[in-house]
Structures are given as structure tokens and as C-alpha cells.
TrEMBL record:
Example of a GO cellular component annotation carried by this entry: cytosol
Organism listed in the record: Endobacter medicaginis
Name of the protein in question: 23S rRNA (Guanosine2251-2'-O)-methyltransferase
Entry keyword Methyltransferase: yes
Domain RNA 2-O ribose methyltransferase substrate binding: 28-102
Keyword Phosphoprotein: no
GO terms for MF: RNA binding; RNA methyltransferase activity
EC number in record: 2.1.1.185
Family annotation (PANTHER family): 23S RRNA (GUANOSINE-2'-O-)-METHYLTRANSFERASE RLMB
SMART domains: SpoU_sub_bind
Organism domain of life: Bacteria
Length: 258
């Protein structure tokens, strides 16, 4: 039975947060998809663009000039020193202000499911989840105020441009956030192997908030208790679990095909 929609409760507990600053430094984005998506996003306030000669040409093929700011030509060694030698920056780095983040009420005006991450701390997993959220038309991704990564370059690179598409909100209290989503008429589904098999057609008439827990620990007790139901993925093979970002993609596909 569908829960009637009501005004969102405790919406102030969910908010946006400024971009990540590793070690207290500046939030540089890097890599072709992250940089070009930021340049193409009118909501991004770009401060600097550092590029090698080859990278400048590659960006120009995706985002025609003029750009928001003029590029600064640098050698690859400077980017290695700025970002770390192991960073796959593809010869480009962009410094920008964090994106403005809408209120929860505004986010819920967008169509699609909402993803809620319970202590998922790896920025690459959060970035990959954002990418899947954009691919399957999710309205937003909600992480915790604490026990969640900042919006760093590593997260943006893994998101492959999706950080510019899907709002990333932060919840001070996850239990209150789930209650607010329920009050707005969403059916809260926790993804856990202990539940029944997730079938997209079962949710065809419902708008869903999908809750995913950290790898290994899974959903915390209070988070599980805040869900309307618990479901697991159908996995007939010999593996008992999937990486959390892969599990999110499979679950979103189920909802999309339902």
C-alpha cells in the first residue's frame, strides 16, 4: 500500500557540503570527464584550469571555447606535483567552487529513486554510485555528514561527470532522513542479503529510496529498522556479495526495468 505524501519532515537535517579539500588544500577536479563536465555546467564557478598542450586540445573537442576562465598551460610534471604522481589526471586539472546544493524538498521534485548510503566511505565507490545514479535517472544521492568522503577529485573522477548531474546531499542523522523520505511518500528499501529477492516489478507503482550499507558491515541496526522492507539481489552464482557500487547499479537496473 502506498504511503500518502506529506510535507518533508526534518529536511534541515539534509544539506549540501562544500567540496573536498585533501589535507586542507584546494578541491581540484581532474580527468577528462570530470573537467569537461564541470566546464559545461553553468552552475559551476570555475576558478582555474591547468592543462598540458595535448589536454587543452582534448578538452576543446568536447567543450568548445571560450571557457569560463582561460586555460593555464603547464607541464605534466607540475600536475604530478600538485595532484600526486599516481593520479591519473590526463594532463588537466580544474579548480572550482563547490556546487550549490538544493534543499531536500527541491530534490524530491526531481523524478526517480533516491539513493541513501550508510557509512560508505570509499570515494571511488561513492563516485561510481553517482555515475550509476545518473545513468538510471536517480533524483539524488544522500550520504552522511560524517563517515562519508568529501567531494574530492578522486570521487569526481570515479563519477565520470555525474557529480555535475546528480545532487549529492549530506545527512546529519540518517534515521531522521529516512523518516523524512517516508513522509514524502517514498518507500524505503534496504539492500541486504538477508531479505527477499529484489524484483523491479514489485515497485512499479512506488517511488523508492534505496539504502545501501558499507561493504562488510552492511546496514547498521537503526538504519535497517528505518527501512520499510529489506531486499537482496538474485545471485545464482558462487559469490555471496558484490562491491557496493556494483550492487547499486544492479538494484537501479531492477527498478528501471520494473
Amino acid at each position: 500500500m502506498r504511503r500518502p505524501s506529506r510535507p518533508v519532515a526534518n529536511a534541515a537535517a539534509v544539506r549540501g557540503k562544500p567540496g573536498g579539500r585533501p589535507g586542507g588544500g584546494e578541491p581540484w577536479l581532474y580527468g577528462l570527464h570530470a573537467v569537461t563536465s564541470a566546464l559545461a555546467n553553468p552552475a559551476r564557478r570555475v576558478r582555474r584550469v591547468l592543462v598540458t598542450e595535448e589536454a587543452e586540445a582534448a578538452i576543446g573537442r568536447v567543450v568548445p571555447r571560450p571557457w569560463a576562465v582561460g586555460p593555464e598551460r603547464v607541464e605534466r610534471a607540475k600536475l604530478d606535483a600538485l595532484l600526486g604522481r599516481e593520479t591519473v589526471h590526463q594532463g588537466m586539472a580544474l579548480l572550482a567552487d563547490p556546487l550549490p546544493v538544493p534543499r531536500l524538498e527541491e530534490v524530491l521534485e526531481r523524478p526517480g529513486p533516491v539513493l541513501v548510503l550508510d557509512q560508505v566511505t570509499d570515494p571511488r565507490n561513492v563516485g561510481a554510485i553517482l555515475r550509476s545514479a545518473a545513468a538510471f535517472g536517480a533524483a539524488a544521492v544522500v550520504v552522511q555528514e560524517r563517515h562519508a568522503p568529501e567531494e574530492t577529485g578522486a570521487l569526481a573522477k570515479a563519477a565520470s561527470g555525474a557529480l555535475e548531474i546528480v545532487p549529492l546531499l549530506r545527512a546529519v542523522n540518517l534515521s531522521r532522513t529516512l523518516a523524512a523520505l517516508k513522509a514524502a511518500g517514498l518507500w524505503v528499501v534496504g539492500l541486504d542479503a538477508g531479505g527477499g529477492v529484489l524484483r523491479g516489478e514489485d515497485f512499479a507503482q512506488r517511488r523508492v529510496a534505496l539504502v545501501l550499507g558499507a561493504e562488510g558491515d552492511g546496514l547498521r541496526r537503526l538504519t535497517r529498522e528505518g527501512c520499510d522492507e529489506i531486499c537482496g539481489l538474485h545471485m545464482p552464482g558462487q559469490m555471496e556479495s558484490l562491491n557496493v557500487s556494483v550492487a547499486a547499479a544492479v538494484a537501479l537496473y531492477e527498478f528501471a526495468r520494473g
